[in-house]
Design brief:
Number of helices: 13
Strand order of the largest sheet: 3-2-1-4
Number of strands: 4
Length: 357
Amino acid sequence: MIVPEETGQERTEQATQRRREETRKRGQVARSTEVNSAVMLLVGFSVLLFFGDYLLRRIENVITGVFMLSPGYSLSQSNTHVLALNMIRNFFSILLPVFLIMIVAAITVNIIQIGFLFTGEPLKPKWEKINPIEGFRRIFSRRSLESLIRDIIKITVVAWIGYASLKNIMPGIMEMADASVGQIFSFAGSMVFSTAMKILIGYAVLAVLDYGFQRWDFERSIMMTRQEVKEELKLTEGDPLLRARIRSVQRELARRRMMEEVPKAEVVITNPTEIAVALMYETGMSAPMVCAKGRRLIAERIRQKAEEAGVPIIENVLLAQALFKAVDIGHFIPEALYAAVAEVLAYVYRLKGKKIL
């Protein structure tokens, strides 16, 4: 594949379907990690919000059970090991549903962004990844600068939302100096929830914008030069000159087959030199059929073929034009032309001394 640096051409053409498929097989897709992070944060916060009390009660029961064992429990290497395993097992069973929900959310958001894609191409070792020169180029590349700007914007927006939220609730914090422990915990929970929701909303907006940017950047990165499009067309559809030659041969074969049908015609209708239409009619046919037609040079060849075969040639300008425009080769004439064609065929049959069926 010819690259733009070698041709001096700019990438101005939209990527073809083949380029998109090859890029996808290499694992290069439009995907925003910010969308993943925003969804994971939202799901995690929602789980804690709706099931936090239940999880805390279960954790409290585990810890309470351990302390209840302590008065008459003698520690040794064996039972300490068993106790630790039991605690780990209990904590794991408590947090397993949360982990499963997070895993399902992570998989779902990736499928929504890029669909089902399984490829090991990004895992293959590549010299470019360990080449220090290429590493420095990536560090100071346009993509790295864009990533740095996005990160700065993200941190600035999140920090500003957090600061604004804390600034608004600062008077309430000062009033907590004389509050009870329960009131303090209630206020702290409300404050954390309010601040977190504002940050999540702001982060979600940034994630949507980042996804749009990633889509645009991906489309820009896979654009092709005109030369690349031509080379790909040669690979997928063959050389244009060869395709043109094949079409030319096919047309010539079709014309030969058409000319072979002219001697079988009942009459050739002309206008008189521009158009020629040969009509065939046999017993049992529902209507006369156009077996050959053409303009200029082909019309002249049809007339020559008809003269050689002794097929009558009738000049009828309007009928010739109507048949040429309305009927394709191998098709029967339309009902609207029955009367006009019947007159011509009757005249031809009288000339030949044939009976009119």
